[in-house]
Structure formats: structure tokens, C-alpha cells
């Protein structure tokens, strides 16, 4: 297996799967018992009910529809929607909640808990209250205020917007780009401008809800392929071209393959080079959602296109968001000039939605500039990218060594750890928080019913010490909850990924930064045109050699 | 004991069976054998799934044939080559270098008086709101870095929700991070396939998207025509009487806008509420443009009639116009609104509102509360005055659409000034810029069913527009249209002069 596709999805052990199902059966049985008691007045009913005035209306939602909410979700509600009162940086402060009635309602006793933040999307650590980005945002607030109050197509266009678009286009290597004030809406409201009836959408089964909604709003035929399964994509593509539309049998007008760069619940990375080859072979179009990969993947932070060394012009629609890596909000679509001009004329969001608030635009522009080495301390952007990469590999390797089941790609900053059993979802969320670690736990319906998991989002703001402390907490909690399910030895690549390796890597980037600060400040060279399947091994070797030198130096010093 | 008996029973039956086979006539055995063969045949038959059938033995294409078809297939280009709308694209190039407040400065150095963007209560650039936003920026940073469920809930969000609920006198409020997707997610979180939605035909595009995403049956009623709506409701009630079983599970909704952005008039809320209770239909009111702007008449209606309001199915606002930073929210009873926290797509799957914007919105709401409708009353009187003057002074030159007190008005060129077309209005807006005024045509996408038949210039009033500013607007509109009328008249004259000569 090449480094590019070093992904792991260890199958669920049978015993664990059976126990998980038993857990859900127990919950359902108890849920029905509790419902029976509630309906017959033995237990006080705390569900919000229809007010008297609308009692005889058709119920807004059926009672059984909310069975899951009432009997499963409610018991462990404290693991979600945890309010915070500080900036979501490397650490944050949570507002404590107490529930007097087992999750029906919450009270705030007024105390706070400090915890390490592995829950927020802050890949490059741009969620900051000072520094160049925050300063730019403050300056923009002074000049422009907070809101604009008009769509860009009417009179809501600021020069900041135009600057941001130019910056995004340059960063991702596209001809032009258009920005939108909400990431979700970027997908949901722009797909209808590109395709419509008589077209076909090939969508990955694990695509984000916004892509699913966007595809549905187009009115095109939607075909779903198995997650990251290239053979299945090809089969479905051939089928779509050969057999055309259902019933009428006319050929499809166009076929759009919709994938994400990094999948936020699996931590897997799309197989971009193969998809590009397929797309060229079958004359389909490719829509790549880089929400979780832009800034977080690739040597220059330019997403999975950068990571695989592909030509950005081979991807027809490059979409991404500003929330995850840049500490802002909103999203963009980049591509050919024609595409962007079309979106400017037809995008629902551009014609109706208010434009991106100025402070957010300023924050994002500055973050991009830092990554390109044009703002902030010299080499700071490159340092953040390296720190995230090192953190990711180090954290993943440490988890593998603990013996938990970790999903996903070696370099993906989204790290899912499998929990499986419903009871352990809450236990994991609560026990980690008790020890000062804030994480996200996810269960059905966001995941398949037996594949509940915890998700850790790495950040360049985390230091190695924070990671060590978190791994120690995870070790304690997973031992306590018997969560070390893995029956495989840690993957081979984890062997060299130790604390010493991580320190040496970081030191290396520090050294590069100081003497060559000015050199780093220039624009990064353009991406190569040809698509390469694998990374240049030479570069990796050089890097390794440098790391070895550094290790020797560290050893000598100690 | 029991087991023994049962055992004995079975063994008896079994031996009996074998004996029966021996003693049966041959034709019977042959018949049974045929039956068994038939069953086996059925088991191995191909199923009738259309997808399987397509690839069935007969019409299965060979790989070479498939390749041939694939090579022949020519898709349409992703971006079809319809002509670019240069005027629309140009609006993306016109860059404001100052806040888009009562006046706006552009990169070419011109400062224009703003009659184009929604800033009804003149909150954009308000020092108090800006300071609160800055303080919040230094405390929370810019982005919230996560959806509400995953550490994207800050104390400012909770506070703002509480404040909104109190402002509306409702039990609960839910915040969304983008106006457009608020109503577009709120509708489909309740209305599903097989439900029925009665929607005003002039509803804005965000509502239409919500209707489409819900996949319910959509019935459109004539704009603001409660008689027509009642007729439709009656027809539905008739249906329900005939099929009560289906009616018991079919949810019904009315969707209207408080202040219609597409035509600037106000929904007859009182009558709608009556209809709601009469026909047991839930009511969605989209308040994007009406929150805080229709104070004097509606505030009493809203505040005084709290009970009535809380009784509404739901009430949704995506407010981009009034307080600028506030992006979108839904208020209503707990029973109604809480449901969205798990099923509103735009709520669950999107990063939450940047905390500094939430803080700014909260400050704006406090100001609205403190002012006790002072700016709202002023806005109403300015809108009213402008409306009267438009009618009085521009008769025969421009036609005005919209309610007198509405801060949104649509202007169209009158017949005798020439054709009212989009290019003509765009030219008027360009000329307005030369006269120091910022005007905009109302933009729509092609699929928008709610757009008016005729293009228009959308005027947005600001409560602090002075009489002289309004005067210069009127002067411009008058002189511009008079110029057009003259041109038009000359053409007419020429044609008149020419005509006898032809005859």
C-alpha cells in the first residue's frame, strides 16, 4: 500500500457487535417501559407537549418519531451542546451544567471547567483573540461595521470580498473564486446552478448533509456509491452512460461526481488521482468539497489536491469552507472563470443572501496571507502546517499504540476512535471531561448504529505536551471502559513516530524558518501540471536524513 | 410426559405418511411430483426486478458495445454558454470601501446616499454595537469553530436566544447562522412528504427552496388574498371529511411573509390567525424584513397579542435588514421549536454564528428594546412621507408598489416614459450614482416563482433619511424620468409627423 492511501478501518469484532446490539435492545425495552409508565401517569411526563390552543391540530411530529430522542438521546444529552465561554483554542472553559431531571432540562450553577479542546475545528489554530488575524478583523469592524445588509449582486459588495476572492483563487490555484457567507449554504444552494433535471449526480455514501441536500435540490438523478470505492464509481459511471436516464432512456446531459476531501466522521481521504483519471476517461465532472481538508492537508495546506500533487484545474468545482482551518465562517467555490461567472449570475446565495460580514472576511484573508508567507511573523504559516502534520501523526501513532481502534488516514487531522456500545458513548464523554479533556462523541444517526465513536480534531495550537497529556487521559479512560478493542498490532508506520521524532521535526522547521525567513516569505511555486500518484520519494528521503541528523544532535545534547 | 406423547404422535404421523405413499395410486404420485418440480422451477426463476431485467440474458450489452456507447457519449459542458449579464457581473466589481450605512463610499472615491440596502433602523456603524462586537472579538476570536452540538455554543448564543424569546414573548428561540437557510431548513424539518403547504404566490425565494426541500404538496394562493386562501382551505377540509384516516396524519401549514420583500406589502396577519384556528392549520410567518421595522402597528399587535402569537405554529425570521449582524432565528412554543434542534439541517450541520456577530445582534436587540419603538416610529413616518411624495410628485412618471408604511418600495417606469425593462432600470441606477444616490434593481434568479412580472428598482428606507436626502431622491427620479419621457415624446412626435407622409 502506498503512503498516500495508508488508511485503516479495522472491522468491528463480532463479540463487540453482538454486545452493542444487545445494548440497543435493552435501551429500547426500557424505553418502552418508561413510555408505558409515562402514558399511564406513573411517571411524570416532562416532554414538551402541544399547548392547549393547538391540541386538536394534527401533531407536528409523531410520538414514535421522538422515541429515540426521548429515551436514548435525552439520557446522555449532557455530552452535546456543551456551552463554552472562551475562545475555542487549544484549551477552553466550559460552562458547567446540572440537570435536576435526568436530561430534560439544564441549570447553570455558575461554575466553569477548564479543558483541553479536541472538539473544535481549529486545524491551523487561527481561533485566536490576538495576532495578525484578530487585528485585521478588528480593523475591518472599525471600518465596515458588522453587517452589510444586502446581497452582493445588489449593493453588498465590499472591497474586502473582492480581495478575499482573489486570494482564495490564488491559494487553491484556480482561475477565479466566489465566496459565500455560510459553508452549508455553499453546497446546498450552488449545486442547483450547475446541474438540473436530466443530469446525474454520483455521490459518495458518506457525503455531508449539505451535499446531499444540494444534490436533492437540483432535481437530478442521484446515484450513491460505496465510500471511497473506485471500482463502484466506475461501475456506476459506466451504467449511467450506457443505460442513460430511467424510463426515458435518454442519455444524461452531464454527470457530476461529488466527493469530499477528508470525511469528517471517518477521517478518510478521498482517492483523488484515481477519480481524476476516471473523470477524464468518462467525461464526467468532479465536485470536490474540501471543507475539512483545505488548510489541513498537503505540504502547502492547499487541501487534498496539494497532498496528492494533482493539478487543481483537473477538478471542475473546488469547494471549501473558512470555518475549519481559518477560524472564520463561510465558504468558497473556485474553478474556471466561466464557472465562477455563471455562479455570480445564478447562485441563490449571491443573489439573495446577505454578503459575508467584513470582520470574518478580514480574518480569512489574513489567514490565507499567513499561509502564503505574506503576513504575520515570517514562516509562521509553514510552522503551523508542519505542527499540524506532526501533531496528527504523533497523536494517531500514540492511539494505535494504546490498542484502541482508530479509523482513517494517517495524515487526516480528524481522528475517530471507536466506542461501539451505546452506554460507553456517554461514559467516554463524561469521563474524559472529568479528567480535563473535551472531545466529541457521535452515535446514531450521525454514524451507523453500531459504529458509535469519539472524534478528536487536531490543531496546530496543540503542543506536544498537550497531546501527551490527552493520550494519557485517553489511556486511562479506555482502560476503564474496556475500549481497547484492536486485535491488530499497530501499523508499521507508527514505529518511528515517537516524541523524539516529533520534537526533531518541529525543531527542523524552526531552523528552516530562522535563517531563510525571507525566502519563505515569497510566493509558493505553482503546483506541477501533471498528476502524480505518489509523492516524490526523494523529498521524503531528504527530510528523513535531516531528521536523523537532528535526532543525533538531540541525543548528543542530552 | 408431555414430550413423550408428542413424540409418539409425530412418529405415528410420519410412519403413516410413508404408508400412505405406498398405498397411493400412481397418477397421484405423478401429480405431486409435477407440483414439486413446478415449485423448484419457481425458486430458480429470475426475479422481475427492472434493474436485473435490463441486464438480462437477451439485451445484455457486450463490453465492446458498452465501450462504443461510452466513447460516443458527449456530455453538455458543465457551464453552458448563455450570454453573460454584464450589468449583474459589474455589481460584483463595485467595491465599497466604507461601511454600507446611510451613505457609502466606493473605490472610485464617490460617496453615495444609500437607498439600496436594508439598514432600516440605521444600526450599521452604530458605535455601541461596534464596541460590543470588538470586545467580543477580543474575547472569543472570530469563528465559532464548530456546529452548536460540538462546542460551537457560546454563552452569547444562549443569551441571544433567551433575549429573542423574550422579545417576541415566546417560549423558545433557535438561532441559525445564515438568514437564507433559516426558513429553508425550518420548513422541511416539520413538513414532510404527504403533508400540505399553502403558500403565498409571492413568497421569497428562500421560502420556495424550503417548500421544495420538504417534498410536500404545495398549494399556492393569490397574493394576500385571504378569501382565496379560505376557499382552498375549505376545499381541503372537504377532502379531509371524505378521507378522515388520511387527514389525521396530514399536517397542514400556511406560509406567508410578514413584509413581502418582493412587493413591499404586509400580510393580513389577523385574518390569517383566524383562519389558522378555524381550519387547524399551522402558520409560518417569515419576518426577515419586518422584525423591528413594522413596530408602531405591529408591535402592539405582537406584544399586546402575545398569547395569540405564541399560539402560532412557528414564527421564523431571517433578518438581514434590520440589525445587520443578526442572521436568522425561529421563535415559537417549546414543543414546536425544540424539534429543530435535532432536525433542522442548517442548524445541526453548520457551524454556529460567529460569537462577535451574536454579541452585536444582542446589543442591537437591547437597543430596540430601550428605544421603545422610537426609531421604528420614525422609520414608519419617513416611509409614509416618502410614499406620499412619490405618489404626489411622480405621478405619470414612476409607479410605486408597496404599503405606505413599508420601508421597502418597488419603483417601475410608467408607460409614458418608455418601456420598463431591466436595462432601462439599470441605466437609471447608473445615472443615480452620478447624482450621488445609491439605488439598485431587485435581482432574481430565473427559477424564482415569486418574482414580479415586471422588473423594478427596490428602494429601502432608513429611519434617519433626512428630508433633503429624500428631496434629492425625488428630484433625481423626476428629472430622469422627465428626460426619458421627453425622448419618448419626441419619438412619438416623429412617428406622428412621419405617418401622414407615408399615407
From TrEMBL, chain A:
<keyword id="KW-0812">Transmembrane</keyword>
<dbReference type="GO" id="GO:0046513">
    <property type="term" value="P:ceramide biosynthetic process"/>
</dbReference>
<keyword id="KW-0472">Membrane</keyword>
<feature type="domain" description="Aminotransferase class I/classII large">
    <location>
        <begin position="115"/>
        <end position="472"/>
    </location>
</feature>
<dbReference type="InterPro" id="IPR015422">
    <property type="entry name" value="PyrdxlP-dep_Trfase_small"/>
</dbReference>
<keyword id="KW-1133">Transmembrane helix</keyword>
<dbReference type="GO" id="GO:0004758">
    <property type="term" value="F:serine C-palmitoyltransferase activity"/>
</dbReference>
<dbReference type="GO" id="GO:0017059">
    <property type="term" value="C:serine palmitoyltransferase complex"/>
</dbReference>
<feature type="region of interest" description="Disordered">
    <location>
        <begin position="512"/>
        <end position="545"/>
    </location>
</feature>
<feature type="transmembrane region" description="Helical">
    <location>
        <begin position="12"/>
        <end position="30"/>
    </location>
</feature>
<keyword id="KW-0663">Pyridoxal phosphate</keyword>
<feature type="compositionally biased region" description="Basic and acidic residues">
    <location>
        <begin position="527"/>
        <end position="545"/>
    </location>
</feature>
<dbReference type="InterPro" id="IPR050087">
    <property type="entry name" value="AON_synthase_class-II"/>
</dbReference>
<keyword id="KW-0808">Transferase</keyword>
<dbReference type="InterPro" id="IPR015421">
    <property type="entry name" value="PyrdxlP-dep_Trfase_major"/>
</dbReference>
<dbReference type="GO" id="GO:0016020">
    <property type="term" value="C:membrane"/>
</dbReference>
<dbReference type="InterPro" id="IPR015424">
    <property type="entry name" value="PyrdxlP-dep_Trfase"/>
</dbReference>
<comment type="similarity">
    <text>Belongs to the class-II pyridoxal-phosphate-dependent aminotransferase family.</text>
</comment>
<dbReference type="Pfam" id="PF00155">
    <property type="entry name" value="Aminotran_1_2"/>
</dbReference>
<dbReference type="InterPro" id="IPR001917">
    <property type="entry name" value="Aminotrans_II_pyridoxalP_BS"/>
</dbReference>
<keyword id="KW-0012">Acyltransferase</keyword>
<dbReference type="GO" id="GO:0046512">
    <property type="term" value="P:sphingosine biosynthetic process"/>
</dbReference>
UniProtKB/TrEMBL annotation, chain B:
<keyword id="KW-0012">Acyltransferase</keyword>
<dbReference type="GO" id="GO:0004758">
    <property type="term" value="F:serine C-palmitoyltransferase activity"/>
</dbReference>
<keyword id="KW-0443">Lipid metabolism</keyword>
<comment type="pathway">
    <text>Lipid metabolism; sphingolipid metabolism.</text>
</comment>
<dbReference type="GO" id="GO:0016020">
    <property type="term" value="C:membrane"/>
</dbReference>
<comment type="pathway">
    <text>Sphingolipid metabolism.</text>
</comment>
<dbReference type="GO" id="GO:0030170">
    <property type="term" value="F:pyridoxal phosphate binding"/>
</dbReference>
<dbReference type="GO" id="GO:0046513">
    <property type="term" value="P:ceramide biosynthetic process"/>
</dbReference>
<protein>
    <recommendedName>
        <fullName>Serine palmitoyltransferase 1</fullName>
        <ecNumber>2.3.1.50</ecNumber>
    </recommendedName>
</protein>
<dbReference type="InterPro" id="IPR015422">
    <property type="entry name" value="PyrdxlP-dep_Trfase_small"/>
</dbReference>
<dbReference type="GO" id="GO:0046512">
    <property type="term" value="P:sphingosine biosynthetic process"/>
</dbReference>
<keyword id="KW-0663">Pyridoxal phosphate</keyword>
<dbReference type="InterPro" id="IPR050087">
    <property type="entry name" value="AON_synthase_class-II"/>
</dbReference>
<feature type="domain" description="Aminotransferase class I/classII large">
    <location>
        <begin position="111"/>
        <end position="476"/>
    </location>
</feature>
<dbReference type="GO" id="GO:0005783">
    <property type="term" value="C:endoplasmic reticulum"/>
</dbReference>
<dbReference type="InterPro" id="IPR004839">
    <property type="entry name" value="Aminotransferase_I/II_large"/>
</dbReference>
<dbReference type="Pfam" id="PF00155">
    <property type="entry name" value="Aminotran_1_2"/>
</dbReference>
<keyword id="KW-0808">Transferase</keyword>
<comment type="similarity">
    <text>Belongs to the class-II pyridoxal-phosphate-dependent aminotransferase family.</text>
</comment>
<keyword id="KW-0746">Sphingolipid metabolism</keyword>
<dbReference type="InterPro" id="IPR015421">
    <property type="entry name" value="PyrdxlP-dep_Trfase_major"/>
</dbReference>
<dbReference type="InterPro" id="IPR015424">
    <property type="entry name" value="PyrdxlP-dep_Trfase"/>
</dbReference>
